[in-house]
Amino acid sequence: MGFINTIQNALIDLGLPLKPPGATIFVVLFSSGLSLFIALLSRYMIDVNELKRYTREIKLYQDLMKKSKQTANRKLAIKLKRREAYIQKIQRKMMSQRFKPMAIYFIPLIIMFYVLRGIYTAPTLAFSDAGALAAKGEWIGYTNVLPFAIPGHRFGTAAPWDQSHTILSFVWFYFIVSLTIGSVIQKILGLTPE
Predict the structure, then answer these.
(1) Model-level pTM?
(2) How is the chain split into domains, by residue range?
């Protein structure tokens, strides 16, 4: 992967922070910027009013379907059965609308994610070596160190120099920040269903 290594080396040469807190701040800013870009692209490419109208129609249909089953109302069930094809059609249309922006940003996103994951993946050192590096303040390869332990360490690794801390991997930290900030941005831009 010479191309990827070239990009990684160029980013490091440009001064990409490799350890906390700089790496943490960079990932937050990168994730926020990317979330904002994707939300603005979606806002531009998607007919938001149409999606909201479809969302209301589908919700009403689902509520009536639930009522029909609870009350065993045969007339309502027949009426809803006739409407089923239309509801499926608008669901497909909604999905198609939501995937339009992805056609533009997906490949560049995967490449950048792969590049950054390669930079921010903890080095393959023995934990005793990693602890010695951390003691000297050389946390190269980590984006964030949480000040608490996560039981089971599914989202990160126990910090070798202090078991009461967790080294959060780039992947998990990126997704946590992206989901949090992305949700807020989408809400502000009116991209979330009512």
Answers:
(1) 0.70
(2) 1-44+121-189
